[in-house]
Design a protein that fits this description.
About 35% of the residues lie in helices and about 20% in strands. It has about 270 residues and is of the alpha/beta class. Helix 5 packs across helix 9. The chain is globular and about 60 Å long. The termini are far apart. The structure holds 2'-monophosphoadenosine-5'-diphosphate. 2'-monophosphoadenosine-5'-diphosphate binds next to helix 6.
Length: about 270
């Protein structure tokens, strides 16, 4: 029987995961079946259980089920525990293991694909929700000179640091960013989903090398437009992160690391 995997979310019709994993499997000479499942809001656990009973070996999980996926797992990696969210599950002998590859996928895209190491750089992370939670530990492991988290709700950002047990990160409100500049600015807020700009000014871009928008496929968001207008030449959306986190999951499930560049090239929608 072909090994089965799936992505589960709601809505799920725009997912690129079956395409990405299909390309990985082809390139690695692996025979797998990877489908998309529209999860039910009332019975996510039942959906996962049914997939397991049908021989499923692993799942990717996307909105709005990442938290529930984490909660139903029997064990979780440290980064999944900090994010309190899972974007990948593995079914091993009656147990469910949870992982969260979003943050390391993002870091790998920034450092490896975009050629911007975080080490020694001033890094600004906008947002303190699930996406920022996933990015925090991988970012810290990369040794930035300064890591600042900015959020409207400061308590939420402070809770994130307390949960991570880290004091070496600064939490600032947006007004406190006035006059401060960074080398790398990452938008991990959900503002772009409603075509809004987080309340930053052009100051933060100073002579920034990279502006990274996590929302994929939204074109030049207000955040990227502001960065572009401020002279930032390296603008990225989340396509590389999407493919890199998928590659991590593929490796976790199959023990083989696929090349990501051809898949990123295939999925890239030019920003301008
Ligand atoms: P996700 O899991 O996708 O990150 P979330 O947990 O709801 O979603 O978090 C959304 C993040 O986007 C939060 O950091 C939120 O800021 P607040 O905590 O201050 O509300 C941020 N956000 C959403 N819309 C925003 C906007 N228009 N400007 C700035 N931040 C915004």
């Amino acid at each position: 029987m072909t090994d089965r995997y799936a992505v589960i979310g709601r809505p799920i019709n725009h997912t690129k995961s079956p395409l990405i994993h299909g390309l990985f499997a082809e390139a690695c000479g692996q025979r797998i079946e990877y489908t998309a499942i529209e999860g039910s809001l009332e019975d996510f656990k039942g959906d996962v259980q049914r997939f397991r009973e049908q021989g499923g070996l692993g799942m990717n999980v996307t909105a709005p089920f990442k938290l529930q996926a984490f909660e139903l797992a029997n064990s979780a990696s440290e980064r999944a525990r900090l994010a309190r969210a899972a974007n990948a599950l593995k079914f091993v002998e009656g147990r469910v293991e949870a992982e969260n590859f979003d943050g390391i996928g993002l870091l790998r895209d920034i450092q490896h694909n975009l050629g911007q190491p975080l080490a020694g750089r001033r890094v600004l992370l906008l947002g303190a929700g699930g996406a920022a939670r996933g990015a925090l530990l991988p970012f810290l492991d990369a040794n930035p000179a300064r890591l600042v988290i900015a959020n409207r709700d400061l308590d939420k950002a402070r809770r994130l640091l307390a949960d991570a047990g880290r004091r070496d990160v600064e939490v600032l409100g947006y007004p406190q960013l006035q006059g401060q500049s960074f080398d790398i600015v990452v938008n991990a807020t959900s503002a772009s989903l409603s075509a809004e700009l987080p309340p930053i000014t052009a100051d933060v871009f100073g002579n920034a090398r990279l502006a990274y928008e996590l929302a994929y496929g939204k074109g030049l968001t207000p955040f990227l437009r502001l960065a572009q207008g401020s002279g930032v030449t390296n603008l990225a959306d989340g396509v590389g992160m999407l493919v890199e986190q998928a590659a991590e999951a593929f490796f976790w499930w199959r023990g083989m690391r696929p090349q990501t560049r051809p898949v990123i090239d295939r999925l890239t929608i030019p920003l301008v």
